[in-house]
Amino acid sequence: MSSRSNKNSISDPVDLLLRERMPVVSVPRDLEARIRSAVAEDRKRGQAPIGRWLAVAAVVVLFVVFNRPGEQPVAPPKLARAQELPVSEPVLMENPLRHEAMALKRDVDRTGRFLLDALPSLSLVDP
Amino acid sequence: MDERSLAQAAQEGSSDAYGRLISLHHARVFAFLLSLTRHRQDAEDLTQDTFVRAWRNIQKFDRSLPMLPWLLTIARRQSIANLRKRRPLPEPDWMLYESEEPTPSGRLWRLADRCLSRESFSALWLHYREELPLKEVAKILGKREGAVKVLLHRARNTLATAARPATPPPIKPSPLPVTTDTMISYPTAS
Known about the structure:
The complex is a heterodimer.
Chain A: H1 2-11, H2 13-20, H3 31-47, H4 49-66, H5 98-123
Chain B: H1 3-11, H2 15-37, H3 40-56, H4 67-85, H5 104-115, H6 118-129, H7 134-141, H8 145-163
Helix pairs in contact in B: 1-2, 2-3, 2-4, 3-4, 4-7, 5-8, 6-7, 6-8, 7-8
């Protein structure tokens, strides 16, 4: 099968003509140099990441050190004498859960009453 | 140093060895890309991208195989990616045998460039111009070997039909002896 197709292709005038003279393409003179420089550049870029990450880390550390909020001096903070809190009248705050507590208490009362009402009926159940 | 040793050295990080591989193959990669794109600037840029990409993936290259088909596979993928990115496509600025009077063979190549699809022309280029076996052509084009065989067969048939002269064949002389006395009478419509 393959030998037959091969024979056919060899006897084919189109096949012969295509093999007779190959197309010639002129290559730009500086193309090779351009490719080489592009590869070298890519290689350099490929080596950079570790150094770049170190640089980024250093910048972040410096930023954190110099831009702390408040910018207080490094010296130990002075101990301030504790001042007595001014005595004021006790503030009577309303318990925000007061209503909830009341409702719960009501529920408990109702449940208790219900149970008490239900108890006598138990005696009616046959043993 | 042969190609395999150069590839090994390049895989070990030698840029000199890779430079020599560039010298060996860049012209053929460029020619293939030019046949695909028909645009000089695009072909140059894509050749550059192809070799950069090949350098990045040099560890994946199987040294037991020839390097050109591997490079051409990368080149074709780059060209497809470029086609997807660049719309509208630039006007072609290159043609086969543009600067000389072509021979019959050259005329046929020019015809192929004009009338075949890019895929068929690529198959033709790789098989006839680069003299790659069908198996390698199939690998580069991402097809089965049988499909490439069919593609080439159809391309040859198309070329044979297109190359046929458009003028009708000359009329054969009559087998009867024609003398000056012979009167030819045509039937009339009456």
